[in-house]
Amino acid sequence: MSTASKLTLAGTSLFAAGTIFFVHYGQQNEKAAMHAGVVRDMEQQRVKRERQAEFEMQRELEGEYRKVQTVDGEGEEGNPKG
Q1: For residues 20-58, b (16+ Cβ closer than 10 Å) or e, as one string?
Q2: What is the distance between the alpha carbons of residues 4 and 2, in angstroms, rounded to a whole number?
Q3: Which of 20, 24, 45, 74 has its Cα between 20 and 30 A from that of 56?
């Protein structure tokens, strides 16, 4: 085998190995980014559920308080004065 053919074989082999390495590296980074997105979405959903539960609790408390006391600007039944 001539020197030129050996160099060509070595060059193409290195190029192929480098391509495989960079594609694999890119896939790993993409997979990690996608997983981080899933984790972030789950955290956002958890916070949303907590806020919704707190909102419902506040709504129930408001209903209980309205039964017991009147608010300025409202009549006995919760209707605006007028």
Answers
A1: eeeeeeeeeeeeeeeeeeeeeeeeeeeeeeeeeeeeeee
A2: 5
A3: 74
Query: In terms of Cα–Cα distance, which of 52, 57, 53, 54 is closest to 65?
Result: 57
pLDDT per residue rounded down to tens, the chain (82 residues)? 899 999 999 999 999 999 999 999 999 999 999 999 999 999 999 999 999 999 999 999 999 998 888 767 655 555 655 4
Distance separating alpha carbons of residues 8 and 18, to the nearest angstrom: 15
- Dist. CA 39–CA 49, nearest whole Å: 15
d(CA 48, CA 55): 10
Q: DSSP code of 79?
A: P
